[in-house]
Amino acid sequence: MDWKYEKGRIYTIDENNELLAETTFAYKDNDEVDINRTYVHPKLRGQGIAGRMMGVVAEYLRENSLKATASCSYANAWLRKHREAYADIISGDL
């Protein structure tokens, strides 16, 4: 997938500009973000897209020296599940 990056948003679209998957996050103080939404188009659900997208988000946060909390339930569960691999980006508030 071709991931696009905007401030507070990582997403992918199809050739018709239809949104296929998206994660949004709000910037907080002290180089921290709150991942507040994950979305996968219904036709792609159940194919591991959300997990791959969270991996992209985690790498983006790592490359930009950001830490994350997650008010989005999916993102919160994903970060907890991958706590060991991404300990450097997980905020103590998670």
List keywords for this structure.
single chain; five-stranded mixed β-sheet; 94 residues; alpha+beta
Strand order of the largest sheet: 1-2-3-4-5
Whole-angstrom Rg:
13 Å
Given as residue ranges, the uncertain stretches (5+ residues, pLDDT < 50) are none
Please give the domain count: 1
Q: How helix-rich are the residues, as a percent range?
A: 25-40%
Number of helices: 2
CATH fold-level name: Aminopeptidase
Gross morphology is globular
Question: Which sequence of SSEs, written as H and E, runs from N to C?
Answer: EEEEHEH
SS elements, strand count: 5
Query: CATH superfamily name?
Result: Gcn5-related N-acetyltransferase (GNAT)
Can you summarize the main beta sheet?
A: 5 strands, mixed
Task: Look at the helices and sheets and give the structural class.
Answer: alpha+beta
Strand-residue fraction? 25-35%
CATH class: Alpha Beta
End-to-end separation: 28 Å
Instruction: Give the overall pLDDT as a whole number.
Output: 96
CATH structural architecture = 3-Layer(aba) Sandwich
